[in-house]
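G.,

No rush on this.
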Amino acid sequence: MNKISFETETCSRCGGSGHYSYCQMHGTTCFGCKGKGIQQSKRGAKARVAWDAKRVELCSVPVETVQVGDRVLLDHRFRTIERVETTGGSRFLKDGVWVDYISLHYTVKRPSGPEPTSYGLTPGMRVVAADTPEQWAALVAFADTLTGALIDGQPSTATAKADAASAKRAATKAAKQAAQVVSAPVAVPPAAVAPAAPSTTRVCGHCGSDYPVGQSCGCFDNGGQ
């Protein structure tokens, strides 16, 4: 029989140590992971809710139909019913009429030894009965469609597809960023401009002609200056 589980991750509260702040009743046990160091991921928790709802849809039965020897899900575990009590137990008031709870009796194994226990349910409620092979096959097939579900410890088909798509998106993003770095314009500093050489000529203020610095123009009106 295939085993169904759900994706987990390191506890975000304690960082995986299983310990957090101290309290007198629970010591340093982390409440985020109950001391396990791991917790269901967001998509694992979402898949678990969907799978549990499907199990109730496929496997639940009216509490009135439960008989001695049946195995039903009570207090998060399947219990073998040893006695069904429909009268003489606890009662509740409904529409002005006292109605008996249906009490399912079973035995819980404690460190101190077996402990008789009972669970009271309102008539009309439904309980999850042990799965038939056909029901379990349907639940396994449903789990394979859930992102965050694991079948025999391996990612479901939906989980594998989601992970592949996520990896592809990450690779595409990295490639785009690399391309942007390569194509970015490189700033080129401006070429150095050499200072202008000092002028070696002067302009005659009288005739307008150029003549070498330190010499005279030679025109009559300039007076040789």
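When you get to it, here's the other one too:
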Amino acid sequence: MKKKQIIGFKAQIKMLASHNTMMHEGAFHDLLFHVEELIDKLTAEFEHAENDELRNLLLELIGDSHSLQAFKALAQQLRSDKSFLRYWAIDGLQRFGTSETRHQLMMARHYELSTPEATQQLRDELDRVLGPEQAWEKSLVEFYSNRSLG
């Protein structure tokens, strides 16, 4: 049986953004326990949050969902110039454990970010998670790239 959420969502978000460690951890774990039912609210809050620390925590939570909405939010953050968002995007997509998410991560090796440094950081992190790119992966990426152009 699911634990019933006692505190409202907005209050949980305020607690999550708190510098009080106990409040912060309690809110995080309560939201984590309800991540699937709160995914719409979490992704909306992530999109509107201006605080990087809060965005970091929200994306970590989103990465624990296995919904299509979570997949889209995580895939979008692979192109972020902020390394901490890319980290949680890669982590969350990897936890999906599907061929679609692995394909998304393989395609991300070829993204060009706003700076060469950010692009290289993304590629290094993907190499760490997926291992070095294989020749067959390059062929697959070329195949899908050519299909989208045609």
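The domain at 9-149 is CATH 1.25.10.10 (Leucine-rich Repeat Variant). The chain has a mean pLDDT of 89.

Enjoy the weekend,
O.
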